[in-house]
Amino acid sequence: MNQETVHEVVIVGSGPAGYTAAIYAARAQLNPIVYEGSVTAGGALMNTTEVENFPGFPNGVMGPDLMEQMRKQSERFGAKLITDDIVEMKLDGKVKELKDGSGNLIKTKSLILATGSAYKEIGLENEKRLSGRGVSWCATCDGFFFRDQVIAVVGGGDSAMEEANFLTKFASKVVIIHRREQLRASKIMIERAKNNPKIEFLFNTQVIDVIGTDKVTGLKLKDLKSGTERIQDFTGLFVAIGHLPRSELIKGQVDLDNDGYAKVQSGTTLTNVPGVFACGDLVDHRYRQAITAAGTGCQAALDAEKYLTALS
Ligand code: NAP
């Protein structure tokens, strides 16, 4: 890449928000550069199974297939996709400067941030130590390794229900452990989990430790009503307790809220930095759906286009 070129728009992130921004920016002939990330392009939907609620797919669509289609659609209009990370950003000034994982300097007049969110951890020392040795955040990635085993899923939201249902393909039993009595998940997902004969629920229960020397053998659980603690045997722990915004790179440059989400002007994708737009799960702690992320990706591209028109 010519390091002197000043691009019209660079998009960082490759979930539904990033690719939708790329489709719109490419059709507006802004020649967008998309940094997809060095590991897996496609964002959180790459770890999902069937997406049943994305409009236009009456029979559902697999998360990775949906992302592949969005990716191809952005390429069709000329978006340039780069499989690398942005590791540094300098956002003041009219020309934004970015550095990628290969050491390239990228200059751009506008920037769309669509970096999404990362899995939240419970925060236990042994959870980290036994990660990949029985502790996982992704049932579609790791479920296969737990054939005929008894697995715990922590969380009470849609992710926990989805992970648990998926894991019953392999596991002999899946126990959903939730810290409250009421589940946060949507009715349809709760129904499905409750009707699955391999799924059991443990309410008002907190995981306070993960037991195991070189692989998970059990969990230390606390009954939050009685205060009693006990160890229960499990060979797998899937953590599905939500996400944290990926905003480390922009901290100190773009205004964030108390939870670390990028702040945007109401009803737009405009951050406090002129020429920098934010969309998708980086901004949204309320809806967090593929369709809402795609919607704000579209808004970001339109906002960037308007900004660039005013510059010229
Ligand atoms: P979520 O809705 O925020 O739920 C997180 C769950 O984890 C909550 O039940 C929460 O408990 C629990 N939790 C949080 N921190 C915890 C901790 N430190 N220890 C123990 N439990 C903890 O997150 P999500 O399930 O990942 O869903 C995120 C969004 O994606 C939602 O809007 C959801 O609808 C969407 N989604 C949709 C689908 C689908 O439609 N197929 C699938 C997956 C996700 P409390 O309830 O007590 O707060």
Please tell me about this protein's structure:
With 312 residues, this protein is an alpha/beta fold. Helix content is 24%, strand content 27%. The strands form five sheets. Strands 1, 2, 5, 6, 7, 8 and 19 form a seven-stranded mixed sheet that branches. The radius of gyration is 21 Å and the shape is elongated. The model has no long low-confidence stretch (mean pLDDT 95). Bound molecules: NADP nicotinamide-adenine-dinucleotide phosphate. NADP nicotinamide-adenine-dinucleotide phosphate (NAP) binds next to α5.
Topology:
Layout: E1 6-12, H1 16-27, E2 33-35, E3 50-51, E4 61-62, H2 63-76, E5 80-82, E6 86-90, E7 96-100, E8 105-113, E9 117-119, H3 125-129, E10 135-136, H4 139-142, E11 150-154, H5 158-167, E12 173-177, H6 187-194, E13 199-202, E14 205-211, E15 218-223, E16 229-233, E17 236-239, E18 243-245, E19 276-278, H7 290-311
Parallel strand pairs: 1-2, 1-8, 2-5, 8-19, 10-17, 11-12, 11-17, 12-13
Antiparallel strand pairs: 3-4, 6-7, 7-8, 9-18, 14-15, 15-16
Helix pairs in contact: 1-2, 1-7, 5-6
The protein binds NADP nicotinamide-adenine-dinucleotide phosphate.
Oligomeric category: single chain
Our estimate of the beta-strand percent is 25-35%
Number of helices: 7
Mean pLDDT: 95
The gyration radius over C-alpha positions equals 21 Å
Shape call: elongated
Given helix and strand content, the structural type is: alpha/beta
Largest sheet geometry: 7 strands, mixed
Helicity level: 10-25%
Question: How many DSSP-defined strands?
Answer: 19
Low-confidence stretches: none
End-to-end separation:
24 Å
Q: What small molecules does the structure contain?
A: NADP nicotinamide-adenine-dinucleotide phosphate
> What is the succession of H and E elements?
EHEEEHEEEEEHEHEHEHEEEEEEEH
